[in-house]
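Extended Data, panel c. Modelled sequence:
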Amino acid sequence: MNIVENSIAQNRAEELGYDLWEDFVIPPFYDGLDLLTAKKPRVVVGGRGCGKTSLLRYLCHQTQFSSKRSKITETDILNIGIYWKVDTQFAKILSKRGFDDNSWNRAFEHLAVLEMSREILKSLENIANSSFESFESSNLDSFDLSILSSFRTDVPSNFTELKKFIRREINYFQTWAGSIRTTSEPVFLPLKFVKELIAEIKTQNDLFKDTDYLVYVDEYENLLVDQQRLINTWMKHSEMPLIFNLAMKPNSFLDKNTIGNEPIAETHDYREYNLEDFYEKINFEVFAAEILFLRLWKNDNTFKIPILPEELRSTETDVLDKRKSEPYKKRVLSTAKDFLPSTSVDEMSKDVFTDGTLYNRLKDLIRRAIKNNNIKGDVEDFLIPEFPQASIIIPALLNRATSTEEVLNEIEKLKSGKQNKFTGTTNWIHNNLFGSLLLIYEPLGRYCPIYSGFEAFCLMSRTNLRHFLELCYKSIANELLNSNKKALKSISIRSQAEASKQASSTFLREVKNFGNDGNKLHTFVLRIGTYFSYAHKKPTQSEPEQNHFSIRGNRSIELNRFMDDAVKWSVLYESRITKQKGGENKAESEDFEYILNPIYAPYFHISYRKKRSVQFSGDEMNTIVFGDFKEFQSY
């Protein structure tokens, strides 16, 4: 694999490891977060691929005390982040099998205590091995941790021996959990063990006397209900020096009960940050471009980029302000568009007249419209080579109630430079061109330039950085394969458009693996995407570019749960409706509309732009979601 290609291939935080010091790009909204200093728990919400895990790993000790970081001060050790993600399959085996729920809760707490204790010790090691000059490896064995033997007499007092002890205990616990009837039950350690460990560190070394430990529990939604309630309890009772924070997908914080009588409540017990809301307040295109350029430069320092890599990991206010400035954004976006160029709709329209296959397709669409609507005239009467955009929307106009005389009259006005409906306030071209171009390309089995270009990649990715990087990776791979180039200055339209189709297909297949209802979600995407695809093929193009919908009337509990799950897995995006049709008859359930994830647009050959919505009844949506194939087909 080419080194430039390889630099983009890693599109998940897990592939980059825990030390992200040279890979993480500080988001422009970082100054609006306080995740590394907050004394009240935080809940971080965001869809797949939006950067939750990367952000948490950046905040934690492996990155903050990276050996690659040139300067670490006493201020940096005031807040030490601990990243914890429980293995999904392992979490599930900590239940049932003849073991009562209370015992499983104690077992899960024991696992959490061991994992957190291990990370606390590792954080001290990382500080000792970092550029921080006031704490060295020799300081580690100066700790006397004998107080911990009050929990179990076999707990060592020495730092190095305690590390080995915890490692052995984790291994033994995993063995026991898999065979509880044949292996002796461990002596379970309580959360107090962690608190005592922290207390000893703070007491025995003045460098850490004001240090707080911030635990970030990732993928909270994968925990069992009783496990969530235990962590909810810890979060509710968080206080310095041990604060618990959560990260999860949308619609995942379903059970806010604790093991006590009082549930946790937002504002009182925690504050919630939705990363996708933050993305909407910044220029996502700039952030995506910065990540792309850092990846390209990191593996090839000769690659010319419009950024300073060291600034991308700076949290200084003046640097963040610079990255938000108009000159900076203009420079970065201009370079990104040069690397991933696009074809304008004007150029695409001209191509229709210079490409024999496309031109024949346009003429065929006009010919069908003339025949189906009994129009007098020839194809040539409606072709305007000097105005290709107007020509491309002619089939849509002829298939509507628009009279032939009106169309021909407006063509003459356009040719003579008079006020006309093609370019005037009626704006036929603006309203119909994108959809009409899609209609021309749809049956030809060739790449469509609409799905190419940096801006298109950002729109198809929405706020999903993983999707953006995959589009870039496949584009680069295609370009290297198609051109045999060793050095890339830009990616061709064809390589990008083909990459869009490839990435779209890949991510669609992936839906099957989304939780327990992955197959249902996959079927739903195929059905709703097919519906929009048929809508895009309508000759009239009366409602072009449909790709989102609302549900009117009553919805069943089952349907509501399914829609929440689709949003949780980012199959759909949920958006509050700001403008509706229907006046007084508007149903209460129309408060939100749902947008099909635009990354699936190339697969279905539909628009990735949020333009036109369709309204379904609850019964119609039930058919789409839960009906069998015949029911859906008849609908």
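The chain has a mean pLDDT of 91. This feature is highlighted in the accompanying rendering.
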